[in-house]
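We emphasize that the prediction below concerns an isolated chain of 254 residues; any contacts that depend on oligomerization or on bound cofactors are therefore not represented. The input was used exactly as deposited, without trimming of termini.
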Amino acid sequence: MSKKEKVFLFDLDDTLMWNEYTYSLATIEFLQFLIRIFDRRLPFVGNICRRVEEISHQKVSQIDQKTGKFYGFSVNRFPDTLADCYKELCQNGWGKYEEEAADHVRRIGLKAFDPGLYQKDGYVKDSVLVLRFLREKNDVLILLTKGDPEVQALKVDGLGIKKWIPEVRIVSDKTKEIFQEYKERFSGQKIYSIGNSFSSDIKPALEAGISAIFIPCFTWKAESIDVDKMSQEQKKRFWEVKEIKEVVNIYPEL
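Result of the prediction step, given as a token string:
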């Protein structure tokens, strides 16, 4: 391996594929189901969507009674979120709770993880162009994705990403120590973390002494952007682009 080759650590969700899209499709089907079973009598769907989001965020730190473990970002979190929302609506007088209906709601929630959808909807626009460009440069491409192993594996397989990035690593969190592992492994080479999350893809990478390319995608309320708090030395290793295709444009600067 030539020391001139660059190393790119790609994020997956909302960087190479849109993560919220399949959740949105499942939510739309959930709302349509509610309209049908409640005979068109239900609260404004915008309020229901906000409640789904609230329950989903709460469940991350709650215990899944089926496994005895924290939900985190597991497969069960979203189906159970929709089921809890349905139950809450019934408790508030909007309809009669039926376990059969709750089971159907959970099945709707599971559709968010359908590998067929990942395959059908594919990559973020122009991301394959970027991956092909970097492969032609003989650079090293690694997928470093954060999340539940089962969920992320479904995405990786459904997307067929190993065609472009043979090395895949799924972690529960992206830490400074994980990025330092790559700095030691590829000693002497330029390494770049590419992703949409400042807190997961950018900040720990810069702290580990490697470079980072930030592609903002504000899908989580809790996301914190600390560009102004970076040191001058870190700012020299930091790039921000609006779209992934711009990686090709800034490549000569890297």
